Amino acid sequence: MENNNKNKRSSNKLFRSKSLIGVLAAVMVVVVVAVVVGFDRSYAIPDVDYSLPDSFETKDADQRFQSDSGFSVFPYYTDGGIQVFCLEHSIDFQGNTIFNKGEAITDYGLLYLMANIYPNVEFDTFLNDGLQTWISQTAIWIYLYRLEDLNNDGVENLNVAEDSPNYISSEDLDRIKKARGVVDADDDSLNYYTINPATGGISVGVTTDEDPLLYGVIDNLVNKAMNNRNVPNKVLDIDYNEDVAVTQDNKYYQTSQISVVGSPSDNFNGYKIVIKNAPEGTFVVDSNGNKIDDLTNLKATNKFYFRIPIDKVTETNKILSFEVVGSFKTYEGNYYVAEGAQTITSVKSVNNNISRGADIPLDYTPDVPDTGMNTAQTVYFIGLIILLSGVGIIYANVKPAEEK
Fold it and tell me: At residue 42, does pLDDT exceed 50?
């Protein structure tokens, strides 16, 4: 950016005597969850509404946040007062310029990063706006720099071409990695804002080695974004089997227990059931056998069964077809562009739905007890009959002789 490039020469002079600032804890917890498309992690999505109008005009920057190592970031705003961040470090930002909504962002890592930096998420341990802006904008540039580096040869060697819009010079990379504090360059006090809890987040006049390096925060954010860049962020499965039983009153067939699994589970809001094809009178019950009347707002933890009137099942409708529609919270965003200017982005959290269907055959086979006899039992039974018959014949012949 032109302002940043101009500032680099003066910054070394202005802050030559200053030392560097440091590492902070990360903002977002990653929970491990297994998902079909290869993501092995889950993360709870915060509510974000960093949406921009389809067209807006930018304002010139009126501040400069500079690290003690000499790397500057300028905060930029729309004419409506919305803070915006830039994507291309080596291209100038332009104020008083009309930007228009462009293509949707398909890089989920970038959306993830945007949603988890200032102003969408405030870093709890250092609430100075200038410091948060400096870390957030720098994290975006570092992410895109490292991503392009990976795309070039598959190995991260920080070797992006100089003509790339994502290029960061080795000198600037060094300044970023050595920064320990950020000052408002227009503030005569020159007090640095740090992430050092021991000083309350302020170093008076100069930073010291006691102040942690800021790059630890940036690196943590960027690594999480890199890990999530290929995450499709939602998978829906129906857990069931095709067993069918009969209720105690012999009026209904009942399916096996059915549950719906959404991944990442932290971002799964719930689901609705749509019965697509079933015999007349089919309904849904919960684990206690209570009828569920509202099939449109089931919780992720709900389990259910279908009950089908036996007298309504015929040879032509012996298939129960249904669909579940899962609701997931996810990120969306767009690029905003103007000719010759650095690209700007937006991000917001939205609820998206995906569907999954299933068929259950209504073929009930009752359990028939085994009433057959084995060979030994058969021989014993026949022998018993013969024995009893013989006793009866002998008795019949002996009794008349006794009476004579």
Answer: no
